Structures are given as C-alpha cells and as structure tokens.
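In this supplementary section we document a worked example of the pipeline. Step one takes a protein sequence of length 349 as its only input; no multiple sequence alignment statistics are reported here. Step two produces a three-dimensional model, which step three serialises into structure tokens for compact storage. The input and output of this example are shown verbatim.
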Amino acid sequence: MDLEALRHHGDVEATPELVDFAVNVRLDAPPRWLRDRLAAALSDLGRYPSAAEDAATRSVVAARHGRRPEEVLVLAGAAECFALLPELRPRHAAVVHPSFTEPELALRQAGVPVSRVLLPASDGHRLRPELVPADADLVVLGNPTNPTSVLHPAAVVRSLARPGRTLVVDEAFIDAVPGEAESLAGDGGTPGLVVVRSLTKTWALAGLRAGYVLAAPELLGRLAARRPHWPVGSLVHVAVRACCSPGALAEAEAAAVDLRERRRDMIAELAALPGLRVEQPAHGPFLLLTVPDGAAVRTGLRQRGIAVRRCDTFPGLTEDHLRVAVRSAERTSLLGAALSDLLRDTRVS
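The serialised model returned by step three reads:
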C-alpha cells in the first residue's frame, strides 16, 4: 500500500510562477469583508478561545443548517475530521473511490482494515450501494466527489446508512453546487450520519484551516475525545460565524450559479479538443479529464506555465487522468491552447 500516493495533494503542484488549475480554491484571497472581520479580531489573540466563543459558533452553524448546537463540532479545517475517524474504533472501514485520499490515509495509519469501493468509469463513477461491503461499520464518501465532480443523489447516499454503521459524507464542495442540492447537512434523523463541511474552497481560507462537522452528539463526543484543549483558534471561530451569515450565504449561492455557467463553457471548450475526454456530468468546481499519455501532457503543461492536478494518486484512476479547476474564460483559453498543442504532438508521434 503506497501511503505516499495518498498523501499527495494539488497544492504541491501549484507553484507561484504557474497558472493554477491544480488547486480548487475559488479566490486568490478571502473577500474584503471577510478579511476585515478577521483583521478586527486580531486584537483578541492575546486571550485563549473560550467555551462561550465555541458555543456561539456552534449556534450560528446550527441555525444555518436547521440543527441543534450540540450537533456541531468546529474544526481546524475539514481534514481534521478525517484525522479523527480512528477515534470511532471501526472494525472495517469502506472508502468509496475515486475520492479525497485523507480519510483512507488516516484510517490505514491507525491500523484500521480498509476496503476500497471503486466506482467504475463505465458507469460514470455513479454511487452503487451494493458495492459497499455489508459488514463495513464505517463508510466514507465525498459528495460532490473529488476528483470526478460527480454529485450523488442524497437518497442514494442515505441508503448506505444502517444500524451499527457510521456514514461519513465529505461535503467540502457542496457549497459550489447551486442550492447545495443533494446536501445531507440538515439531516439530523439518519442514524450514524456524519457530514463534514469546509470553508476553504469558497472563501479562500486554505491557510486558516476552518470547517465543521455535523452529527449526533454521541458521535461528536467520540470524535473529539482526545482533542487537545483549544483545538480551534479564535480566528477560525470568527471565520465560521462570518461565512454562515445570510450575506455570505447569498454570495456563495451567486458564486455557485456563476461557477455552473463557467464550467459549462469550459466543458464545451475542452471537450472539443481531439483525443481529450471530459468526465460528465460534472457538478464540482473542477473537471476530470482523460488524455492520452497523461504524464507527458502534464509535464508539457508545466513547461508552458500551467499547473494541473495529477490523478494517478487517486485509487481507481491513472496517469491519463488530470483534474483541472474551473477558472475564468481567459485562463481556460490558455489551458485549451496548450492542451491543443500537446495533444496534436501526441497524435503526430
């Protein structure tokens, strides 16, 4: 088992001198109003985060999703939840792939037996519940899934729940979907359901590490049992409350609608290139491409000043798969022109 492959992330490919299609963060920096909120809180950094502050943040998140405050755990980045999964003491975990690799990495490092549930490309990487081992007491999947950009129906995801099983749904990119369609964040009734949310992508907070998880209090207590004191800094609390405000939610929804239009145009431009396939339908802020001689194409793009995400580190995918973030029309044109040249060279050779 190659744990190093599971550790790979797109940020190592997006060096500053390159046009970045490798990282799925929407903005280059947080919006001005959010930076102002964070800056205003800097004078409070001389004190420890308080229980009252945590309670206030949980109340805001709970109101945003129609949950109870005790069903909210504020995180130092959504990835923290995956690092905490071994605290649930699963006997047999099933991770649905291709998907974000941090959950499997954390489970394997803790010695948890893991089964990979590989969703076939021939079926559009559609979620097939019958492929999940019946004895798995922990199931993890993404929705929409990174890097395939597939959005699974909420009813199909919910069908994986059963007595004695914890179902973890990574919704890090769901706020990039208009209306947050198929989200289970407001579902407080499905036993064993854990929903993980991130603020990193939409609000450009990768350097702050902010997110939260929604689940029954008993599950959250088990996840958090061995967290240190003050696991989340004061600025994270400020960011979470700010990004759950009505104005922020309206801005995120407008951005999701705009993303849908830009993704449609990007698909049309890239799918027209001979030899390249865009996996569809796509619902995330990124696209999964299949190209011939993918490793050489990725190297060629770097030589032309463009970074894309290699995908052979995702279980079930190969070097011929590349993930590209949805960007502006101008940046997409740069990518399309570079890919056209490289694919023509591939056909000639």
